[in-house]
C-alpha cells in the first residue's frame, strides 16, 4: 500500500477513527489495532511474505526472553548469535542469494565450466532490511542490558511491524519506540496539525519532485550511451533530487502519520544537501541507518579510538557494509567505497566533526565560503549517486567519462521539441523545494512554520492550497518508493 495511493487515503482515516474514538482509553486495544492495521498494510503488497515478518517477530521476542533469563554469559551469547544468525540468514538468502550464485557461476564459466544453478524466482520481500534491523537492535540492546526484554508480545510485535515505518524506515530503536507503546497517548491537536503539514510536504516531495525527476533520470540513464555529457550530468542531477525527494518524502509522511497516533519517530533527514562536507552529509542523510551502523558496528569495531590503521579500516567497513545493505550489486559497493574515500581525509585531519550546527539562521544567504563548501559537497554527492543509479560499474565509468569531456558543454539532447515547457516547470518545482527547505533549515521539515506564520491564518492556508494545487497539476507518474527495493 503506497502512502500516495487512494487505498492509503481511505485506510488511514479508518484506523485513526477506531484508534481515537473507539479505543481512546485502552492502550492494549490501541496497540492491537495498530498491529492488525500494520499486518493489513504489509499484506497489501504480498500476503505470502507475512510469514517472514511473523517468524522474525517470534524469533526475536523469544530470543530476548531467553537472553534475559540466561544464567551464564555463554548461554545468553548463544541466543544472541542464534537470533542474529537466523535473521541475517533470511536477509542474505532473499536479498543476496541470486547475486552470489550469479557471480560464482560467471567465475566458473570463465574457467570453462558451464553450470545451471538454481536461483530464486521471487521478488525481494518488501521492507525486510528494515524490520530485520529493528529486531537486531532489540536483541543486541537486551544482550547489552540497555533495555529489559519485552514480555507483552503484542507490544513487541507493534514495535517491529509499526506500519508507518515498516517498509522503508526510519530504522527505530527499541529504547526509543517501545516505551511509547507502553504508555497512554492523548490526542494533541498541535502535534497532529504539525504531522499533517509534514505529510503534505512529504507528498509534495514524492509526487511533484521525485516522480517527475524519475521520468527524466530513467530516460537518460536507461539510454546513457545515446546521450552527451551535458544530458548525463542533468540526468545525475535529476536522480540526486529523485532519491532525496522520494526517500525523505517517505520519511516525512511516516513521521507525520505517526504523530497522528501520538507516536514520535526518529528523524531521518536534516536537509543533507546543505551540508558543508561529506561527514556532515552523513549526519544528515538517512540518519537512522547511519547511527545504526555507528552504534552496532562501528563502535564495537573500535570506532575511531584506535590508531590510524584502525580508523581507516573501520571507516571502509562501515561504508562498504552500508553500500551492500542497499542491494546486491557491485555498484552499491562502489558507491560505499567512494563515500569512504571522501570521508577518510576528514577523519585523518580530525575535521569529521567540524559542522555539528545548522548553517547560521540569521542570514538569508550562505557566506561565500559556505556556498563553495555546499557546492563542492553536493557535486561529490552527485558523482557518487551515479554509481548508485547505474546498472553496472562500467556504465557508471562510461557516464563519468562523458561528463568529464567536451560534450559536457554541448546542448542537452534528451528533450523533445514539446518537452521544454514541462522541463522548465519541473526545474521551478525543484527550485521551490530548495528555497523552502533552505528557509526552514533550522526546523524539522520544510513546512514547519515559525510562530508568525502560524498566527497568520490566511498566509498559512494559502501555502497549503498552493502545494495541493502543485501536487494535482504537476504530479508525475506514480512510482514505488525507491527504498522499497532495499
Explain what the structure shows.
The protein has 486 residues and is mostly helical. The chain has two domains: 6-186, no CATH class; 190-276 and 355-485, no CATH class. It is built from 18 helices and no strands. It has helices at residues 6-22, 27-46, 50-69, 73-110, 128-143, 153-161, 174-182, 189-221, 229-260, 278-284, 287-298, 308-326, 330-348, 368-389, 393-403, 420-439, 451-455, 457-474. The model has no long low-confidence stretch (mean pLDDT 91).
Question: Any chance you could write out the topology, listing elements then pairs?
Answer:
Elements: H1 6-22, H2 27-46, H3 50-69, H4 73-110, H5 128-143, H6 153-161, H7 174-182, H8 189-221, H9 229-260, H10 278-284, H11 287-298, H12 308-326, H13 330-348, H14 368-389, H15 393-403, H16 420-439, H17 451-455, H18 457-474
Helix pairs in contact: 1-2, 2-6, 3-4, 3-5, 3-6, 4-5, 6-7, 8-9, 8-16, 8-18, 9-14, 9-15, 11-12, 12-13, 13-14, 14-15
Amino acid at each position: 500500500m503506497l502512502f500516495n495511493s487512494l487505498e492509503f487515503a481511505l485506510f488511514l482515516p479508518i484506523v485513526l477513527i477506531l484508534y481515537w474514538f473507539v479505543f481512546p482509553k485502552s492502550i492494549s486495544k490501541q496497540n492491537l489495532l495498530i498491529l492488525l492495521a500494520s499486518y493489513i498494510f504489509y499484506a497489501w503488497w504480498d500476503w505470502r511474505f507475512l510469514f517472514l515478518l511473523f517468524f522474525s517477530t517470534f524469533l526475536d521476542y523469544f530470543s530476548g526472553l531467553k537472553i534475559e533469563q540466561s544464567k551464564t554469559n555463554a548461554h545468553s551469547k548463544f541466543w544472541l548469535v542464534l537470533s542474529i544468525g537466523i535473521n541475517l540468514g533470511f536477509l542474505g538468502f532473499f536479498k543476496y542469494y541470486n547475486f552470489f550464485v550469479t557471480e560464482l557461476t560467471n567465475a566458473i564459466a570463465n574457467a570453462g565450466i558451464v553450470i545451471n544453478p538454481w536461483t530464486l524466482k521471487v521478488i525481494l520481500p518488501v521492507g525486510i532490511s528494515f524490520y530485520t534491523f529493528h529486531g537486531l537492535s532489540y536483541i543486541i540492546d537486551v544482550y547489552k542490558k540497555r533495555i529489559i526484554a519485552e514480555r507483552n508480545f503484542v507490544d513487541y510485535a507493534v514495535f517491529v511491524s509499526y506500519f508507518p515505518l515498516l517498509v522503508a524506515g526510519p530504522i527505530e530503536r527499541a529504547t526509543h519506540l517501545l516505551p511509547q507503546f507502553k504508555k497512554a497517548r492523548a490526542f494533541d491537536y498541535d502535534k497532529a496539525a504539525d504531522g499533517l503539514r509534514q505529510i503534505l510536504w512529504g507528498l509534495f516531495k514524492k509526487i511533484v519532485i521525485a516522480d517527475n525527476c524519475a521520468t527524466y533520470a530513467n530516460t537518460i540513464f536507461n539510454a546513457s550511451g545515446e546521450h552527451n555529457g551535458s544530458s548525463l550530468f542533468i540526468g545525475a542531477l535529476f536522480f540526486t533530487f529523485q532519491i532525496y525527494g522520494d526517500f525523505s518524502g517517505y520519511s516525512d509522511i511516516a513521521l507525520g502519520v505517526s504523530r497522528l497516533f501520538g507516536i514520535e519517530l526518529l528523524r531521518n533527514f536534516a536537509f543533507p544537501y546543505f551540508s558543508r562536507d561529506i561527514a556532515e552529509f552523513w549526519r544528515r542523510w538517512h540518519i537512522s541507518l547511519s547511527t545504526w551502523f555507528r552504534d552496532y558496528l562501528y563502535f564495537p569495531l573500535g570506532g575511531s579510538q584506535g590508531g590510524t590503521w584502525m580508523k581507516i579500516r573501520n571507516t571502509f567497513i562501515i561504508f562498504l557494509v552500508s553500500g551492500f545493505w542497499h542491494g546486491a550489486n557491485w555498484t552499491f559497493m562502489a558507491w560505499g567505497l567512494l563515500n569512504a574515500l571522501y570521508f577518510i581525509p576528514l577523519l585523518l585531519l580530525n575535521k569529521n566533526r567540524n559542522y555539528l550546527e545548522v548553517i547560521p539562521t540569521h542570514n538569508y544567504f550562505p557566506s561565500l565560503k559556505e556556498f563553495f563548501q555546499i557546492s563542492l559537497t553536493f557535486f561529490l554527492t552527485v558523482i557518487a549517486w551515479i554509481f548508485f543509479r547505474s546498472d553496472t560499474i562500467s556504465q557508471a565509468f562510461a557516464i563519468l567519462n562523458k561528463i568529464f569531456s567536451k560534450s559536457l558543454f554541448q546542448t542537452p539532447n534528451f528533450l523533445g521539441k514539446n518537452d521544454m515547457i514541462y522541463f522548465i516547470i519541473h526545474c521551478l518545482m525543484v527550485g521551490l523545494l530548495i528555497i523552502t527547505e533552505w528557509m526552514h533549515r533550522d526546523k524539522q521539515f520544510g513546512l514547519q512554520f515559525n510562530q508568525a506564520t502560524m498566527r497568520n491564518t490566511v498566509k498559512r492556508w494559502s501555502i497549503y492550497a498552493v502545494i495541493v494545487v502543485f501536487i494535482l497539476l504537476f504530479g508525475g507518474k506514480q512510482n514505488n518508493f525507491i527504498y522499497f527495493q532495499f
